[in-house]
## 1
Amino acid sequence: FAKPAESFEPELAAAITKLDERTQTTGTIAASQDADPICNCQDYGAVSHSIDSVVIDETKAKAVVTFTNFGKAEKRTIDLVTTAEGWRIFDIDGSYRKAVFDDLKQP
């Protein structure tokens, strides 16, 4: 992501930015950053999506989205939170956030 803060909540955006900076310095891509985390794809064809469901309360939301890339459909669960800038991604599939912070712990 060129601008993580446009999509992810501040703490996760900062962590993604640190991993990107590490990649620029070392040339090594962290496991959590090896594919686009939203569509879970490295190569892009005509990526499309459909929103299957959304559940919203005052400060958080959960969206189930189906992404199709190169004819392969994949469901993703995206957890969002409200921030001063609006809705931002908190986690993807209940595991992306942990993967990012685990990668930050690596040397």
## 2
Amino acid sequence: GYKYSISGTESIGGVKCTVIDMNTDVSPDEMATSDVFKIRLLINTATNEVKQWIVFEKNGNRHKFKINSYTSNVTLGDAMFEYDCKKYPNVPVTDLTENEDFGFCPE
């Protein structure tokens, strides 16, 4: 889990953002197995949309993810959410809806 706090505001490309720091809230044993200790979210104050997030690792690495634009009310067909085994032969498949173990697409 994470403990979060609002750390202030910051401007990204002229867009005012609220900065939210999420610090890990885990036991020392769990922390020993994780590389990440903090995630920083930058939220557009006018639209409440995520503008950017930064993942902080214990070794000093930082990974920055930016969202340049949003497209809302997109119509997606059912095929977008269906897995086509024929396109990916010999790829292991776990069907969580059926509670089955790993398997492969039927031939």
## 3
Amino acid sequence: GGGGGPSENQPPRIEDISLTLSSGQVTIRVKVTDVGSGVQKVTAKVVYPNGTQAKYDLKQEGNEDVWVTSFTAQQDAFQVWIIARDKAGNETVSQWSQIQTPPPPPF
């Protein structure tokens, strides 16, 4: 018997979020690690300024801790919530904002 230690209720760690925007196509790469049960699912929730929401499931890249998804952005500005869940049901949420600022007009 004995206690199993705190590892079972330790949520995943979102260590790195990189987002690239190329001609309307957005690619999100997230590094997620989890001590204990392991990462089960990583989801990106995208919210646009007009209130539109979209959800995308990230796929694990090979055997690495990197999860990736790509989608077509409806607008240039949006907020992203990365939701990582491990197999024990613990969740971590991390926020990322993409705000496109237009170049200043020439004088």
